[in-house]
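Chapter summary example.
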Amino acid sequence: MRELLDRHPGVQLRQLGVSEAVLSQRPLAVATVLGSCVAVTFHCPATGWGAVFHALMPLSGEDVAASREFKFVDDSIRRLTRALLRQGVRRSNLVCKVFGGANAMFAEQFGVGRRNVLAAFETLADERLRVVASDVGGDRGRKLLFLTHTGEVFVKRLNAQCLAG
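The structure predicted for these 165 residues follows.
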């Protein structure tokens, strides 16, 4: 990861935890580790805006008021889309990428990881957002590095099987 950051001198590294998001027009490198959780990156090449979230659960339902702001995949996509549109980003210029959703070891066939991925793709389609890349599913966690100003995402698969979100 250090060599990737060396190619972008002066870019700050920001760690992204569960139920957190970053929205920036300033160049940032955002790192996170995913198991069954899902991260969606947003990038607008025309304006340089970038955003990413790390969500734990697929659908917000009635629990939004009691939850952390970016806990749910569907709600996180809608919140960041609205925030980007308020900054003058055109929906048609947004490029999205989806990551994570690994199945925990010994998980039921249709576990939370798979439900998180489905929620992401369905909500992105509902929002009329273009998905240009994804790396989802499987039984291995992922370490992500997202460059907000270029839209690049670097993924490293973790060696151990996924035990939790």
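To summarize the output: The helical segments are 2-6, 73-86, 112-126.
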